[in-house]
């Protein structure tokens, strides 16, 4: 289900001093069941925003401050998500949010076992009031070059034979404690499905820096598209690149006594 409504375009002025209110609510609410991790604040993963957040205020912050151009969707094992973006709209060497996913692995026959590590959402607009608990997966991207990234990074070393002056598109996931240990598949393809690139990866912890120059210092867990692949998937930048995201089905262990 996609979260789209005129109400999600309300200005951030409706919540004055957003981060202060969020932190005050956290300290005055009975949040022991969430754990101390939610009391540790961190900055918004978007490069042009340095708002102070907690795990319980991420969804509210994105809905109130970053609702323009960002898709808000649910993702489960049964419902994959399709996102799309135009490469020529990306600002060079600036991270960009392709989509904000509300992850839920509840199924009718297999209830979610880790529900106690979800954080409770605070200050939600009416459009998202049904999301009482929080399990975010933020899909991030960045158009950059290898020379603009960390010289000593493992990722750059992995692609040491490439032309460092050519553009490269990075796509990665960002998550909290509830989602960083969940394996996802990211597939980038063109509109005709004739060309695609995919990778399995775990979300990067939202408490870490998501700046382009920082992520490659300790991260190789991302989809990397060369300039040739960017042109291929975007039909020479005439069309949007489509990103498909879905949780990787974990193999169920079979009890040998039942086999």
Q: How are the SSEs ordered, and which strands pair?
A:
Layout: H1 18-28, E1 42-43, E2 52-53, H2 58-65, E3 71-75, E4 81-85, E5 96-103, E6 119-120, E7 133-134, E8 136-145, H3 154-158, E9 167-175, E10 184-189, E11 196-201, E12 204-205, H4 212-218, E13 223-226, H5 227-233, E14 241-247
3D structure, described in words:
With 259 residues, the protein is α+β, with helices and mostly antiparallel strands. It has one domain (6-247). Helices cover 15% and strands 27% of the residues. It contains 5 helices and 14 strands. The strands form 4 sheets. Strands 3, 5, 8, 9, 12 and 13 form a 6-stranded mixed beta sheet that branches. A 4-stranded antiparallel beta sheet has the order 4-14-10-11, with no helix packed on it. A two-stranded antiparallel ribbon has the order 1-2. It is globular. It starts with 17 loop residues before the first helix and ends in a 12-residue tail after the last strand. The relative contact order is 0.16.
């Amino acid at each position: 289900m996609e979260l789209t409504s005129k109400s999600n375009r309300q200005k951030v002025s409706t919540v004055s001093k957003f981060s202060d209110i969020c932190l005050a609510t956290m300290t005055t609410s009975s949040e022991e069941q969430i754990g101390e991790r939610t009391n540790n604040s961190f900055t918004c993963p978007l490069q042009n925003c340095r708002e102070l957040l907690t795990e319980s205020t991420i969804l509210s912050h994105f809905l109130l401050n970053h609702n323009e151009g960002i898709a808000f969707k649910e993702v489960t094992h049964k419902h994959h998500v399709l996102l799309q973006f135009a490469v020529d709209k990306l600002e060079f060497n600036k991270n960009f949010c392709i989509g904000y996913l509300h992850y839920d692995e509840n199924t009718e026959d297999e209830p979610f076992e880790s529900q106690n590590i979800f954080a409770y959402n605070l200050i939600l607009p009416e459009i998202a009031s049904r999301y009482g608990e929080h399990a975010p997966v933020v899909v991030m991207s960045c158009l950059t070059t290898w020379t603009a990234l960390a010289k000593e990074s493992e990722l750059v070393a992995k692609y040491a034979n490439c032309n460092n002056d050519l553009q490269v598109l990075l796509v990665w996931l960002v998550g909290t404690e509830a989602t960083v240990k969940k394996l996802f598949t990211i597939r980038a393809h063109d509109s005709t499905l004739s060309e695609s690139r995919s990778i399995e990866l775990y979300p990067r912890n939202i408490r870490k820096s998501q700046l382009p120059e920082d992520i490659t210092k300790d991260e190789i867990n991302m989809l990397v598209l060369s300039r040739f692949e960017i042109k291929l998937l975007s039909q020479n930048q005439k069309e949007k690149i489509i990103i498909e995201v879905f949780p990787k089905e974990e193999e169920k262990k079979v009890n040998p006594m039942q086999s």
